[in-house]
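ASSEMBLY PREDICTION REQUEST
Request ID: AP-0331
Submitted by: J.K., bench scientist
Number of chains: two
Total residues: 555
Priority: normal
Notes: Please return the full assembly, not individual chains.
Input sequences:
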Amino acid sequence: MTTATASRPANQQWQIHGRRAFVNNLATVAMYLAFIVAVIPLGLVIWYTIGKGLARFSLGFLTHSMAGVGSNDVNGGVYHAIVGTVEQLLIASAIAVPLGLLVAIYLNEYGGKAFATLVRLLVDVMTGIPSIVAGLFVLAFWVIGLHKGYSGFAGAMALSILMLPVVTRASEEMLRLVPDPLREAAYALGIPKWRVILSIIMPTARTGITTGIMLAVARVMGETAPLLLTAAGTLFINTNPFHGQQEALPLYVFSSAASGTPADVNRAWAAAMTLILIVVLLYVAARLLTRRDALNRR
Amino acid sequence: MAKRIEVLDLSCYYGAHKAVADVTMTIEPKTVTALIGPSGCGKSTFLRSLNRLHEVVPGGRITGQVLLDDQDIYAPDVDAVALRRSVGMVFQRPNPFPTMSIFDNVASGLKLGGGKNKDLPDVVERALTGAHLWAEVKDRLKKPALALSGGQQQRLCIARAIAVEPEVLLMDEPCSALDPISTLAIEDLIAELKDRYTIVIVTHNMQQASRVSEQTGFFTLAGAGQPGVLVEYDATSRIFSVPADKRTEDYITGRVG
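STATUS: Completed
Returned structure:
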């Protein structure tokens, strides 16, 4: 057994000098402050929305539409908006996710240098498209140009235009993180390229890609402007996304808040809270799905 | 099973850059051939041209010929994917597939390579036994491959490579990321594997080259940016005792490199 040497003060050379200690503390404080400043708005948004939303939120709110409900009536709900939002997101994802994944795979695994750079540039430009422009495009091209009229599907198309670049870039980043030695190991076994991509590269990047898709879905879930021009909103339940105007949660929040009557404003808050809840639910579900997957491999 | 490799006037390029120039050598079946030489002399590039992995790199191309039992592997009608099933490879860093179990890693070449699905558990057991890993992992075949130690992972990669029953096994510094015990295990393994395969191993460790190989090729390059050349290719015992070329002698005695 060794006896512990009593600790003695550090000699001159090793001591932390005043200036360095000061700068260190300053940087630490600055970091904590920045963190708090960043978190306060997030906390307030959630706190405020839930606080105001709870006043009107109930099971009945989730299961009723606004059919026959006036601005000053206190009943009514968001059922028709939830149906619309869910259908529109499913369709938008069905369009944007496979397409975005394919583009990402092309860019990362196949793309020739010049053309891939061009595609990447276009995807970046697409990321910058203001959401209302996507809505205007579908309005001009589909709703008016092809005489298809307002529909949930038109809204979904506008949303998919917004999702596509996000899914593409996120997936591409994740695919790029898959180390080349893995690809080479697979090629060296005589595995064909499409199999390498499908069975080795995609599973390796799966968790990251799922998160990217989730972010894209969450981002377009709150889009109001493009839906205003395409799905156009309604007070009634419309389960057919391919025919007739359809409501969506952000549209519901927008129109209720704009109406301004106390009953409508209460419903707007509760609908906003519903929107947040759905995003959280989706996020948790996606996380659990990829986690279960990771655990299975253990 | 094991095949003879004949290399005729092979040069390897990355785009316009010539990495290896005019290599001609014959590698006999069921022998271990070591390739030694300073970093950047093109040993690995040369090795990767033997299973056409060199061309996977953008701009990678070759001139000259590589014959595998008289079949030109760069002939236009040769499918590189099928070829690589006959010419297996083990890399410098262990690179098991991270999303797969130990079992699936070993079975991956057969399952994903589109070959006939023989009795997989049997093939996996034989490959793992061949790679001296069976006893250590037989009770946890379903565990992820990344749970193994570095040395075990490298043996897993060897098992994965021999599971597809190649005729040639290329090893690119297979021990450089391993501790001496694991290195010894792999060297023992190489000695056994040469009964069935033609083995070409790149190594920076000259003791290793003299321990495991019958033939040794010494590569070097005249200077930075110059292509690597094969200086001398002879029996390992001669290379390390009476090298014919001054440059070989300087390298193995430690005067350069």
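REVIEWER COMMENTS: Chain B has one domain: 5-252.
SIGN-OFF: pending second reviewer
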